Every structure is written in C-alpha cells, then in structure tokens.
C-alpha cells in the first residue's frame, strides 16, 4: 500500500498507462514533469516523501556572477531569461508564490577589482546583470566593503520547499503522483514498454539525484557528489538584499539563509560542527551585524565530474532516460534543460553535446 496525503493507494490496482514514469520529484523531476505535461504528455511521478532531498535543503540562490574570480555563470544569458519566464508562469499555474527577485551585493576585495568591474560592466555579456558598480562602502554598514562592491541584476532566489510542495499537490490532484520510494527491482522492460508493478509507460526517467548511484543504471556517468551545509540565522532588521562574498547571506521569510560549504569526502546527510564553524568563520569576515543561529541543515548534491548536467537516453536501453547532475546550480539549470529534454523526448530534437549523457559512453 502507498500512503499519499492521508489516503492509501494500492499500487497493484493501478493499471493505468502513461507516457513517462518520472523517478524523483526534486528540482529536476518537478521541472520535467511540468514541461512534459505542458506539452500534452502524461506522467506518473514517484516521490520518496520520507527520503533525503538535496533540493529541499538547497539555498535556492539564483546568482549570475559566481566564484572567487566573480565570473559570469555558465550560459547565464540563456538560462536566466528562461528560468524567470518558467518560474513566473508556474506561479500563475499553481497559484503559489515561490520565485523572488532580489539584488545581490558582492563586496570588492581591492581597488583593482573595483576598477576591473567598472570596465567589465559595460561588456555585452555582463551588462544585463550589473545594476551598479558601487565605489565606496554602503551607508547601512551591513557588511565589510571598504572598496564598495558590485550590485547585480537578474538575481534572486527560489523558495524550493514551497515550489516542490506546490508541484507535489498539483501532481497529486491530477492523479500523477505516488509518494513512495521507487523499487528498482520491480522495474521491467517488456517489448517496447516500461512496466513498474502494474504501471506501464513508454519510458522511465531518473531524476532522483544521488540515489541513482545505488542502482544498476547509468554506471558510465562519472558522478562526483558534493555535500553542502547551510545555516538559518536571525538578523535584525531583516536585510533587503543578498550579500555574497565567501558565503551568501540571503533574506528569506523573515530569517536568513547562509551557506554554503563543499565536501566531496563526507557524503553523509548529517550536519557537522566542522561545517558550521567553517561557515561561521566566513560569515563573521563578511557580516558586521550580530546574528543568532536558528537551524542547520545538510544535503548531498548530485554533481558529475565535469560539473555539467547530464541528460538523455542510456546506450544500453533507449527506454531508460536520465536527468541529473544539476549540482549546486539546480534552480538555474533545471528549467532550461527540462525543456530541452522534453523536446528531445517528444520531437527528437538534439540534446547539446556538453550535457548529453552520451559524453560518458
């Protein structure tokens, strides 16, 4: 029996046929389900509501300028306009608010960096994302910024928990969700059909993050999971923008999310004092205000060796599809590449080489 929001569904009695079975309802699975259904396809989504989900732990930051060297994030000029349209349209469809536009302020670490950005801000690629080059400290004195900083456009955050719960409710209302851990041993391939217990589909799509590593599928993909931890803190008064240097400090629902660290060795889902201390050291180097820690969470992100998403069909069985490897930028990557995968599945349009799973074959 499967429990789903207060009532039970007997999987053995589900004898329906669907176009696609989607395993996982994190950012990848949710965005793909939305895209496929928008294009007129039927899906059955399996979501382990009691399992771990990096999408639910994610800070949800949408940041066009990243890294220590402050470079334009990969494919920003394509991804950012697309994600804005996608999340805005989905808000209207689901009747729920979860996408928030908010400026990001990145303090400069030197006069040289300030000078560099006064020139770079006029460049075609960077200009859409630069609101202002600030040449002196902010009056509010929230963070350490003796050389001013870069105020960004096109930035914001996705409240991932509200987004995922809204999609979950919408799928359930349409009878396309089962809150159950997917049993790989119950998956069979009969002729040109995928059969899972009594459910039939044309293809099965794995959007289940690091869980895919525990299966016998897509072993060729060079997964390199990364653990990240975030803090929830209180600052008074609540900040009106995101501050980002070493760590990000993001106002969110009356509190603030601070993160994140990166750990490729400890892949447990347990929060650690070591990570908390590491984040706090960076936070105290940036923040001038007093704060109080309210919560601390950990998650394991599904990254791959070349830090690019992975999507497409298995070389061994075209009925097996993967959409994974979104890593630390899932909120920004998921909408665009869910659309690309949906178009490939329905219309046969090509998947870009840089993200195609066949790069590992």
Automatic annotation (TrEMBL):
GO cellular component term, pick one: cytoplasm
PANTHER family membership: SARCOSINE DEHYDROGENASE-RELATED (PTHR13847)
Matches recorded under InterPro entries: FAD-dep_OxRdtase (IPR006076), FAD/NAD-bd_sf (IPR036188)
Listed name of the protein: FAD-dependent cmnm(5)s(2)U34 oxidoreductase
Residue stretches making up the FAD dependent oxidoreductase domain: 19-342
């Amino acid at each position: 029996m499967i429990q789903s929001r207060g009532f039970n569904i007997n999987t053995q009695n589900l004898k329906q046929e669907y176009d696609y079975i989607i395993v996982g309802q994190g950012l990848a699975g949710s965005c793909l389900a939305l895209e496929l259904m928008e294009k007129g396809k039927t899906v059955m989504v399996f979501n382990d509501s009691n399992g771990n989900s990096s999408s639910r732990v994610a800070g949800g930051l949408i940041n066009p300028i990243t890294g220590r060297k402050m470079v334009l994030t990969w494919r920003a000029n394509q991804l950012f306009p697309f994600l804005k349209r996608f999340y805005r349209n989905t808000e209207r469809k689901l009747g729920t608010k979860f996408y928030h536009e908010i400026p990001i302020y990145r303090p400069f670490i030197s006069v040289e960096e300030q000078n560099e950005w006064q020139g770079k801000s006029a460049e075609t690629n960077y200009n859409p994302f630069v609101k202002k080059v600030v040449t002196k400290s902010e009056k509010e004195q929230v963070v350490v910024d003796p050389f001013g900083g870069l105020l960004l456009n096109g930035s914001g955050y996705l409240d991932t928990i509200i987004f995922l719960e809204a999609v979950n409710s919408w799928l359930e209302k349409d009878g396309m969700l089962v809150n159950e851990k997917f049993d790989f041993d119950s998956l069979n391939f009969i002729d040109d059909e995928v059969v899972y217990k009594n459910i039939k589909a044309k293809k099965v799509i794995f959007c289940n993050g690091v869980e895919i590593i525990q299966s016998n599928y897509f072993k060729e993909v060079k997964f390199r999971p990364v653990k990240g931890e975030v803090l929830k803190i209180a600052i008074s008064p609540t900040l009106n923008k995101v501050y980002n240097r070493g760590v990000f400090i993001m106002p969110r629902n009356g509190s603030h999310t601070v993160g994140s660290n990166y750990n490729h060795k400890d892949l447990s889902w347990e929060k650690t004092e070591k990570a908390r201390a590491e984040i706090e050291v960076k936070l105290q180097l940036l923040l001038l205000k007093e704060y109080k820690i309210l919560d601390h969470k950990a998650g394991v992100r599904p990254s791959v060796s070349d830090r690019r998403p992975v999507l497409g069909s298995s070389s061994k069985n075209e009925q097996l599809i993967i959409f994974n490897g979104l890593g630390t930028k899932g909120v920004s990557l998921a909408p665009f590449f869910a659309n690309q995968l949906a178009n490939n599945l329905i219309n046969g349009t090509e998947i870009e080489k840089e993200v195609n799973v066949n790069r590992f074959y």
